[in-house]
Amino acid sequence: MKHSKSHREYLTRAAKYYHSAIGEAEEYLGQRGINLEVARTARLGVVLDPLTGHEAYENRLAIPYMTRSGVIDIRFRSMDTREPKYMGLSGATTHLYNVTSFFKAGSYIAVCEGEIDTITLAHNCGIAAVGVPGVNNWKKHYYRLLVDFEKVFVFADGDQAGSDFAKNLARELGNIVIVNMPEGQDVNSMYLEHGKEYFLEKIASADQ
After folding, report:
1. Is 166 left (phi over 0), alpha (psi -120 to 50) or beta?
2. Which domains does the chain have, with CATH numbers?
3. 59 and 25 in contact (C-beta within 8 Å)?
4. What is the pLDDT of residues 1-55, one digit of tens each?
5. What are the strands of the beta sheet with 86-88, ordered from one edge?
6. Quick check: 134 and 113 in contact, CB under 8 A?
7. Is the dihedral of CA 15, 17, 20, 23 positive or negative?
8. For labelling, which of 10, 15, 67, 82 has a CA lying 20 to 30 Å from the CA of 47?
9. Greatest Cα pair distance in the chain
């Protein structure tokens, strides 16, 4: 779906509006190892006073999908035990998250599942990374974005879905390096336990 200029402008304004309340998420983000400086860089927000039509997202973390041409989507994450964990805008199609990393990456890039994991790799670990919002949302044309990299590190969640996702990518591309998280773990939980060195060592070991 191609977004009109007016729609992108609306999403950009909405993201800016929700971003002004990011301080309300400081405790939640801190528990995930994400400080407010990183949250501001990622333009995260909180839906304190929902815009019209956004009432269902109240008190959720607002995660904008930014491109060079503006915001193309916003996803909303629960910061407590409320389900569903993630909600999207009505009628929106899914996209890769953090696509600006394609313009910052060198010879390699990382792929992981979910926005929080992507923020962890990109901002906390300094690893150019993009994220897919759920492994079932991978689209075949994404392969074309990865084919020219020397290596594509797939940091797979420690479950069957994550393992299958990584294997599927490896069957399609010859530059995939699979890094499986331990059972029940993901990028963010491993970062909280081991820090950025865990991931930097995985990158470095692939060159040996």
Report:
1. alpha
2. 5-88 (3.90.980.10), 99-205 (3.40.1360.10)
3. no
4. 455 788 889 999 999 999 999 999 999 999 999 999 999 999 999 999 999 999 9
5. 45-46, 61-67, 70-77, 86-88
6. yes
7. negative
8. 67
9. 54
Structure tokens at 146: 């990865």
For the record, the structure tokens of 157 come out as 């969640």
Tokens of 47: 């839906």
CA 113 to chain centre: 7
Helix boundaries (H) for the chain: 5-19, 26-31, 36-41, 115-119, 143-146, 160-172, 187-194, 196-205
Q: From the CA atom positions of the chain, what is the Rg in Å?
A: 17
pLDDT tens profile 125-155: 999 999 999 999 999 999 999 999 999 999 9
Q: What is the pLDDT of residues 90-122, one digit of tens each?
A: 989 999 999 999 999 999 999 999 999 999 999
Q: How many angstroms separate the CA atoms of 166 and 177, rounded?
A: 9
> What percent of the chain has a predicted confidence (pLDDT) above 70?
98
Strand order of the β-sheet with 129-132 is: 129-132, 108-113, 151-156, 176-180
What distances in angstroms separate CA 101 from CA 7, 67, 84, 86, 148, one per listed residue? 23, 10, 28, 23, 14
Q: For residues 131 and 150, what is the distance between their CA atoms, to the nearest angstrom?
A: 18
Q: What are the C-alpha distances in Å from 5 to residues 43, 45, 51?
A: 20, 22, 19
